[in-house]
Amino acid sequence: MVLFKASLLLSGLALAHAGPGKSPNIEWGACNKTEVNTSLPMDCSNLHVPLDYTDSRSNKTLRLELARLPASENPSKGSILFNFGGPGIPGRSSLVALASLLQALTGGQYDLIAFDPRGTGNTLPFTCYDNDLEVLAMMDEQILANASDTTMGRLWARASVDAQACFSKANETGSLIGTAFGARDLMSVVDALDEDGMLRYWGLSYGTTLGATVAAMFPDRIDKMILDGVQNPHEYYHAYADFEEWTMSDKVFSGIFSGCVAAPENCALAHGNKTAAELEQVVWDMIDAVKYRPIPLGGGLLDYSASKQVMAQHLYSTSGWPDLAVMLDAMLSGNPQESGPEPDAGVYIDGKLQNSVQLMATMGIHCADRKLRTSSFDEIMPAMNQLLNISRVMGDVTTGMSMACAQWKIEPKERYEGDFQVKTKNPVLFIGNTYDGHTPIISARNVSSGFEGSVVLEVNGYGHCSVALPSKCTLKTVSEYWLKGTLPEPGKVCGVDAPPYSNVTWADVIGEASGNNTSCLLKREVYNVPSLHNLGRRLI
To answer: DSSP 3-state assignment of 69?
Structure first.
């Protein structure tokens, strides 16, 4: 969702020495503007929680750095905690980017709180290498399985190197950053808030797996919970790969071109009277071509792996499709310099270092959680071939991470081993988009089937998580859930008010819904399009 400072790779453990026990009350104060830089009236606090929840004899604690946007209406109805996905997405910067939108969606009557989960930001950052050269060597090997006929074996070997390096350097840290401890951290924050002892939570993308886990571990402490852009937690913990995640990816990719043809005035690719299928085939031909003849751009190359990664990242939100169309049109016209400013070599290298921070956080959390492992290349190959068969656009983007997790050597101090047949004190609202290339609607339905009394809200549009799709219907449905606890009728489908290649934003939708379009348009910058474009983003 954001680019992270490479210096975080060298950050130390945020530890203090105080005895575990009942969480102290949180004292809010001014935020450090170098870390939480916003004009919004946000405040911050630190909370010390047990470093290792399984060791009752230890007095070591971990510092969670919290950020809060207070309710705009008084009195506050309590606090809502957020996790923005990944795993590996820092919470505080994500809350800053989306705070005004989330405040509108929650009715302005709750305090909104987020912190950097274990393994991310300043909270027990996970890294496997000591210097930039080692990190760059790792990043240079993040090629995709179909890049050549020898890549699959090379990926397996590289994953083995990374798994061993992580075990050698970060075994202790890696054992403390799993999702089960993340769930306990959420409840520690709830205890310290000293409200009603109940969790109110909105999890997006991987945050739905965290939410499903905390709900299964603490079902009697769930007041309200939205799981939005739902990941299949069964596969997350117990399979060689997240197969179900990619079942809608190719349809979303095709939507880039059908949307282009439907709005030719806003799409640079829409010329020559080509159909959507013809445009898509031209782009696939280009991707195949750069496998053999990469295009030099600035300090790097646009090759097969790079072009596929670009496509994968543009499945998150339609907000980036017009710019993608400009880039693709320039490439297809033989003028790559017109696709945008070329970064110099220094910027290119710095970007790789920044991306490595999230990549290692994702790997450290996800691989520790995943129970199924093997040292046999032959054993994992059927799963990798299954990925390739599920999705042309995403199948080979995900193989490297799956191979690393299969060979992972770090065991978490605690892994959630239960099922997801759950009766929560109050029912959960699941949300899924009809065309979500990262967490398909089928996952929301599958997970909801195990949560007694839960309901799935479907949002009929392209994008990852409901907040990527401006919709008056979603605004009304979600805000009523937070304010009144009212679930939508089973089978409800919300339309969207921002079709692909339009300029409609959440500011317009919220302004129209409130009857005060002018005031919302003045705040258009707070509905940060790049933030929505990268919501839940992970480097796979």
So the answer is: strand
Tokens of residue 40, six digits: 């919004």
Q: What angle do CA 87, 91, 95 make, to 5 degrees?
A: 130
Alpha carbon distance 178, 117 (integer Å): 10
H-helix or E-strand spanning residue 50: strand 43-50
Question: How far is 45 from 32, CA to CA, in rounded Å?
Answer: 10
Contact in structure between 46 and 63 (CB atoms under 8 Å): yes
> pTM for the full model?
0.91
Is the predicted pLDDT of residue 354 greater than 50, yes or no? yes
Please, what's the largest Cα pairwise distance for the chain?
Answer: 71
Residue 539 lies in a domain: no
- Which SS3 state, helix, strand or coil, does residue 114 take? strand
Structural domain boundaries enclosing 476 = 68-123+175-239+418-533
Question: What phi and psi values does residue 378 have, to the nearest 5 degrees?
Answer: -65, -35
Q: 458 lies in a domain?
A: yes
Under DSSP, the state recorded for 82 is: E
User: Do residues 519 and 503 touch, judged by C-beta distance below 8 A?
Assistant: no
Task: Identify whether the C-beta of residue 103 lies closer than 8 Å to the C-beta of residue 134.
Answer: no
455-462 and 493-494 as β-strands: parallel, antiparallel, unpaired? parallel
306, 394, 436 from 150: Cα distances, Å:
17, 19, 31
Coil vs helix vs strand at 499 = coil
**Radius of gyration over every alpha carbon of the chain, rounded to an integer in angstroms:** 22
Q: Is residue 354 assigned to a domain?
A: no
Q: How many domains does the chain have?
A: 1
Backbone angles phi, psi at 262, to 5 degrees: -75, -20
Q: Which of helix, strand or coil describes residue 70? A: coil
Could you list the beta-strand ranges (E) of 94-143: 111-115
pLDDT digits (tens, 9 = 90+) for 174-209: 999 999 999 999 999 999 998 999 999 999 999 999
Which CATH number do you get for residue 442? Answer: 3.40.50.1820
Q: Which residues pair with 222 in a beta bridge?
A: 199
Decide: 451 and 487 in contact? Cβ < 8 Å: no
Dist. CA 325–CA 269, nearest whole Å = 6
Question: Quick count: other Cβ atoms within 10 Å of Cβ 332?
Answer: 16
Report the SS3 class of residue 173. Answer: helix
| 473 in a structural domain | yes
What pLDDT, in 10s, does the model give residues 61-110? 999 999 999 999 999 999 999 999 999 999 999 999 999 999 999 999 99
